[in-house]
Amino acid sequence: MIEVPGYLTQAVLADNGLSHEELICLEELSELQKELTKQLRNKGNMRDLVEEMADVYICLKTIQTGMYISDREINEAIVEKADRYLRRQKAGDTK
Ligand SMILES: [Mg+2]
Description:
0% strand; mainly alpha
């Protein structure tokens, strides 16, 4: 389980505000996208990929906190998506 500490997200939001962190999140998602592209081209390294994944986990949790979205809401959405995937898998429709 990934744990992003609440003291970090609260400090980031207090320092920078939600709108700024939404922008940062877009940047971090882009950085992860670039790192994954490098991996696919066999030009990346695992350390850089882990760093970008950590950045994205942190910024997602920061936005979640700033928008008062509960873990329960997100977990429910994940379960719905998992159920849908399993239904599609059973129907042979996962590609
Ligand atoms: Mg980054």
